[in-house]
Design brief:
353 residues, mainly beta, four-stranded antiparallel sheet
């Protein structure tokens, strides 16, 4: 099953769900937003969290909706101009969320039903996302302190946060799949910290601004995007910073990349040089080692993401004409599902699992 948001006949927005073969398209909850908003499946596939804003009152809301019965739970409401950000815990029981209000970035954790709200930090770095440990027990986040900006770890239940980095400007932490390491950025470079041994590895040493794009599912490699004044290219590197591989010599404006859940492939989007002014991108599916890749189609820069099915076999992407396509990674067969206007994502739990 795939969820996506799109305009309804009366001009409002809502979330829709559809089977991967294009059947059983239905409106999820009759939310009737006045404009597109952000949302995300829970890891267990039962609930979707979303934001919405009342422009007249100038207030944001963070809510969840049950995919089966449409029940809506309100997590947070506040006045402000910036939307909240959030992350589900891997076990789907809690949500970490950040409410930006009057330049204060407050990090909270609540149960999925909105109960037991705990404030973890009131000085989180703007624009960053909290990162859950794989066991759902701890949260890594970046925070400003007297010494500058650093990555901290705190128990999800609350308590004092522990500073774990000394690298100036550390931010954007992401746990490794096995929970033993945290990758983060600082001054445009990537680092990996082994937590138990407290050993730091520099993954990039160049004159580019490097952005973390994702751990491989087995935790052995990292995708990152390296930007300069001339180009923006995609690399894969091992967790010690050795054996960097540039993905595609001819791809010079890469700005999105995603591993498949089984680690067999990754998706990336490349802005064509000859279509820079038009915002047209090419979508590609590459082998895990980066040795070969195949063009899947073209689309718009407005939503260049590719989203894999939970088993890694299928890949959905938004192609030309705002059409949602699904590609079989084994056969490369492609089918057209629906017209969409914004975001889409697979249900995390496979049917029958």
């Amino acid at each position: 099953m795939i969820a996506f948001d799109s305009r309804t006949a009366d001009g409002t927005w809502d979330i829709f769900v559809v089977d991967a073969d294009g059947r059983n398209l239905r409106n999820l909850a009759g939310l009737q937003w006045s404009y597109a908003v952000d949302w995300e499946w829970s890891p267990n596939g039962r609930t979707i969290v979303y934001t919405m804003r009342d422009k007249t009152a100038g207030r944001w809301s963070l809510k969840t909706v049950d995919v089966t019965d449409g029940q809506i739970v309100s997590l947070a409401e506040y006045a402000g101009t910036d939307s909240p950000v959030w992350k589900w815990s891997p076990d789907s029981t809690r949500i970490a969320y950040v409410t930006p209000l009057d330049s204060v970035q407050t990090l909270r954790v609540a149960n999925a039903d909105g109960s037991d709200v705990v404030v973890l930090s009131e000085t989180m770095v703007a624009g960053d996302m909290p990162s859950w440990s794989p066991d759902s027990e701890k949260i890594a986040f970046s925070m400003k302190d007297d010494a500058g900006q650093a990555v901290y770890i705190v128990d999800a239940a609350g308590g004092e946060a522990a500073r774990i980095t000394d690298t100036p400007g550390a931010r954007q932490p992401v746990w490794s799949p096995d929970g033993t390491s945290i990758a983060y950025t600082a001054a445009g470079q990537l680092y990996r910290l082994e937590l138990e041994q407290d050993v730091l590895f520099s993954l990039t040493e160049n004159d580019r601004v490097n952005t973390f794009s994702g751990w491989s599912p087995d935790g052995s490699r990292i995708l990152y995007i390296a930007q300069s004044d001339k180009d923006t290219v995609l690399y894969s590197v091992d967790v010690y910073g050795d054996n960097p591989v540039r993905i595609g010599d001819s791809h010079e404006y890469v700005f999105a990349a995603e591993w498949s859940p089984d680690g067999e492939y990754f998706f990336f989007a490349d802005l064509f040089d000859r279509f820079l002014d038009q915002g047209i991108v090419g979508f590609y599916l590459a082998e895990a080692d980066g040795s070969t890749w195949k063009k899947l189609g073209e689309g718009s820069t407005s939503n260049p993401a590719g989203v894999f099915s939970p088993d890694g076999r299928y890949l959905g992407y938004r192609g030309k004409g705002d059409t949602l396509y699904v590609v079989d990674t084994r056969t490369r067969d492609r089918c057209k599902l629906a017209k969409i206007d914004a975001q889409f994502d697979w249900r995390p739990v496979l049917v029958g699992s």
